[in-house]
Every structure is written in C-alpha cells, then in structure tokens.
Batch of 3 targets.
Target 1
Amino acid sequence: MNPMHQPQDVPGAFQAAWNDHDMPALGALFHEDATFVNRFGHYVRGIEEIVGLHAPIHATIYSDSTLSNELIDMVAINSDAAIVHFWSRLAAGAAHPAGPHAVDTLILAVLTREGDAWRIKALENVTLTNPRTGENVLRDTPAV
C-alpha cells in the first residue's frame, strides 16, 4: 500500500493502486464508510462496494489502463480534515472495447486523519465533457 501521510499524497497513492491494478491497496486508501461517485455518477458507500465497483473493470476493460494524476490544490478544513482536487487522465488500452483512448477527469476528495494516516472519506470523479456536444474533452497538459 502507498500510505498517505498528508492529504497531498492522495493523487499519487490513488494512481499507484490503479496502475498496479491492486484493489486491496485501492480499498485501503478509504475509510470503512467512505463514499465514492464514479465518472458516470454511480454512487457507492463502503470499502467493499468501492472495491466491488472497481475490481470487475480492472479484470476486464481497464486491465491494461493507467492513470496519471496531478494535484491541483489542497484546502485544510482543520488539522484532521482536508479537501483535495486533482486532475486524472485515464489511458485505456487495447482491452477496452473502444480501443486505446484517453479520458480526463477532475477528482474531488475529502480526507480525514486517523493517527498518522490520512484516508479518503468521500471522492467524486467528474468527466470533462463539452456541454454542447457531450464529447470528452482532454485538457491541455504542460509540455514536459
């Protein structure tokens, strides 16, 4: 597992669990009663349901996918709670029925601290789309 020692660690920890297709590691990022809203608006509560939402797609259409996450900002609510926004680019591979393609989303995560570890209490993922056409929009990324 990729432990989160500060709220800003969530984009990297989520990316690492996804890219390793490690569903126990993904589940470990969340509080037991956490909520998750995927990019299609599907709402689930609890680690079992969060992992249950992701495990089948990681075994099939996203088995060769990767995420690339980038922190936008972190806002501390208090010393034990924070809101984190980050960009996420999903690169689907040949296993996806639509073939290789990319999807950009904006993720909002609320984290709280228990002891020295931060965990996700709520996460919502929003696909970037053109409101007039419904087409996915890829955000411009800075040249590396």
Target 2
Amino acid sequence: MARTQKITNEQILAAAREVFLDQGFTGSTLDIAQKAGISEASIFKRFSTKEELFFASMGIPEKPQWVQEIESLVGKGDIKQNLIYISQQILDFYRQVMPRMMMLRSCGKTLPEMNSTKSKPSRDLKALTLFLEQEIAQGRLRCNDAKTMALMLIGSLMNYVFLEQMNVIPSVITPEPMFIQQMVEMIWQGIAPALED
C-alpha cells in the first residue's frame, strides 16, 4: 500500500516562493527543501527542474491558456476577431506575470535564463509566430514576416501592462478593450489579405 504524502505540492511551492522572493533564482533547492521540511530529492520527484519549480511557485503556468487555445483558432472564424481575442488573452497573462517578475528584478534578484530558445518567452513568441505563419499560408493574412508581427503584438501588450503597473495609463483614459481594438486595427492595415479582383 502506497504511503500518503505528508506534504502537498502547494506547501513545497509556498516554501519555494518564499526562498525565491528572498534570494531570486539563485535560491537553492536545498534551502527550499529545508524550509518545507522534506529532502531535496522529494522536490525533484514532483518538479523536474529548478526552473519548473520557480515558475510554478510564481504562479506562471508551464503553458499559458492563450498558447493552449491558439492552435484551435487556425483557419477558423474571423481572423481579426481572433487577433483581438488572442491579444486579450496575452494581456491578461502578462498582467499576472509581469508584476511578479518586475518585483524580483527591482530587488536585484536573479531570474531564470530568459534569452535561450527554450525559455518560456521564446516558446510563447514561437506559438504566436506559428499561428500567424499558418494564417498567412492559408491566405487569411497578407504575406509578411510573422515573427515581426508577433513581436509587435506581444511587445505592445507587454508595454501596455508595464505602463499600467507604473500608473501611467489609468484605465479611465485608455480603456483596455479600446486599446486592443485600436492596436489590432492599426496592425490589420498592414496584414489584411489583399482583396481579390
């Protein structure tokens, strides 16, 4: 008969969050294990890497909801409305993630390596780029550089969240739905499929 677990994943994540907020990504899994009252090996039975533990403890999902949904939108529905929907999902995601990362960075805490091709931001950018490439291939968008389009969308949305965090854009001045609608409209002028004669 299997032993019942004495500590939950949530308790491990709480200990990890405390260590990472205090020490940044350099916080050791040994410190986390001691704080949780378990062995270091127990952590790696539940979380395959320190990076996975870090993101889980910060409440950052392995695969954001918008990335999970984007594949199902390829070739379906109104492409402009899909871009508005995806942009809203991305904005909501960064509203959760950016304050945590900004807090760590502002305290001089280290973060996991973000500039590798396997990092979460790179994977998210690839997912949006792939979506746009597939829409271009189906003739639903004008032939453009999909990666540049993806960077423009994600960059604009991240910047909006950043300015919100800095209290530069109160929502009463630039309401988020209006911003997303206008951003997509402006980008749409350069990516709308050519009208057939």
Target 3
Amino acid sequence: MAEEVDEETPIFAIAAAAELSGMHPQTLRQYDRLGLVVPGRTQGGSRRYSLRHVKQLREVAALSAEGMSLPAISRLLELENENRALRRRIAQLEVRVREELEQRSRVFAAGASGSVVSVRHGTRVRRATEVVLWRPEADDAF
C-alpha cells in the first residue's frame, strides 16, 4: 500500500531543490534572503526544502518569466500560504462541528423525580404530573 507523501516535510538539500526547480542554488539562497521561499533548517543550519517549496520555486520561475516582479510574486505566495492555512483551519472546524452535532443529536427529558433522563430520538415521553419551576431569588442573583 503506497503511503501519501507529506508536501510539508523538508527533505531536499539546496542542490537537489535547485535541480528539481530548474534554478541555480544561488537563486534559491537569494529567494530565501528575500523571504520569497523560506526553507526549513537542520540543526546545523543547512537549508532543507519540501515538495511544496519546490512547487513554489517552479511557480516563482514561471511568474518571473512572465514578467511579474519579485515583490508581487512574494505577495502572491503569501496569500497562497494564508489561503492554505485557512483551508486547514476550516477543515478542523468542520470536524469539530460534526462531532458537536453528533453529541447534540441525543434527546433528554426530565424524569418524575426531576432527574435528567436520556431518551432515544423519536421516542415519546410520558407526561409527568409534576412541573418544577425554578426562579432565582433576589439573594441568588449575581
């Protein structure tokens, strides 16, 4: 079974990333200094590029060849990164909402003694003869 490759894992040294992106290693160093494509670093300080970085480098090369300025490319990459982060956050929140809705699908009723009773969804509950109404007294108010 093939495992899915994580695009974010920094695995390529600068020479490999330069070759994969079709650029000179010095260009990658310059882009790093400009904050255009910033790779991860090893404990020793060596640059390590991920598959996403290589894709970004290819995109930078294509946009630059079309005449887009480096500041404009930088802004575009910044917006793409923000978009990716927001999409991840949306996916996380959707999972939380689904979990919350699953939790809320339970139905509760008041038992004859006033206790809370879990009831299967769609089940009718017999009416109790007592109703307890609680109102805060003036002393209980915050």
